[in-house]
Design goal:
Layout (H helix, E strand, L loop, with lengths): L1 H7 L16 E5 L4 H8 L3 H9 L6 E5 H9 L27
Antiparallel strand pairs: 1-2
Bound molecules: zinc ion (2 copies).
């Protein structure tokens, strides 16, 4: 369930800095409405299940904790974005084929 959700959003890799440390990665709400969404859907397995049921909708991305915090503290944009590390960030919203 977790593997499928991460695979759908690009695998175990931070979409911002490329960090591949699985334990520090989280599924982030691009639109920063995570709190309201968590209230509605839940976290962890509940979130993975919801994503699967919804067909892995756009609006989510994989972020490491550092980038997640950076984004929260920096008004929704990770500080990395002032000096982009990834050449083609537009690719990160593409939902790859669903692996179930
Ligand atoms: Zn990161
Ligand atoms: Zn970052």
């Amino acid at each position: 369930m977790k593997d499928a959700a991460y695979a759908a959003y690009g695998g175990y890799r931070c979409s911002c800095c490329g960090d591949m440390d699985e334990i520090s990665l989280t599924i982030d709400h691009v639109a920063n409405d995570g709190y309201a969404h968590r209230e509605k859907v839940g976290t962890g397995v509940k979130l993975y299940r919801w994503l699967k049921r919804e067909g892995y909708p756009a609006g989510f991305q994989i972020l490491c904790m550092l980038c997640n915090w950076g984004k929260a503290r920096n008004g929704g944009v990770c500080p990395h974005w002032s000096t982009p590390l990834l050449p083609e960030p537009q690719d990160r919203f593409r939902v790859s084929e669903v692996i179930s």
